[in-house]
Amino acid sequence: MNNLKNISLKQYIEISGINFSESTHTVKKGEITEELIVEQFHVINKFHKILRDYRGYDIKNIDNKTGRLVEKYKMEIRLGKRYIRSTKGNNISDDFNDMLLKYIERSEECVLQASRNYVDLIKRSMKSGEICLEDCYFDNVYENEHLFIRDASSICFDMIEIDGINLIDRIKVIKDEFDWEKLIHEYACIEKLNACSEEFMKALISYPSEVMKWFRRYVKDEEKFPKDYYLKKIKKAAKKDGKSII
Question: Does this model's pTM top 0.70?
């Protein structure tokens, strides 16, 4: 046990039976099925079980991102509401503002639901020393007789719900045709999470992150392109965000 305290995270990963891959494990859009997603949940869970036991000297260098996603979303909502307030006195009523207001309301609803048991989930995560992959897509972590990881640089302290959210969000953008509530339940069962975690995951997966990403770009570079350009981008982003499941 003392020897394990004197090893780096990379060394710990390797002696735990995880191989570093030098090639990209490609999964095409058409190959993504519900069964493959559930298999990836199991792969992620195996990584979680291994990573949470790491106590080596790199532990102090692992970034702590616990709670950052929710705080980022709260910041985006504040930015959106501030923009709406700044244009209210100009008697502006256009498609851009109307759409933004609609998605700010959806964003607020998502964050409100996510916040209901948020503190308890954070306490559990910190008490358990949960470590996430963050990048848990098929091209970065996979299993082929052995566990493989291509890039471990995004490993961080965070709630294990976040890895499930990240994976589903990534898939949803390119292939929004699965029963996300069912898959969230599958992930929760595999990770032994409770109903509060499921509600938290549903809320953050329903958050319109693609729309809000393009709104941030509009605020940053408002004069770079005409407003219609950003409206088209936001409408396209809205299709990627899909429907809310809360």
Answer: yes
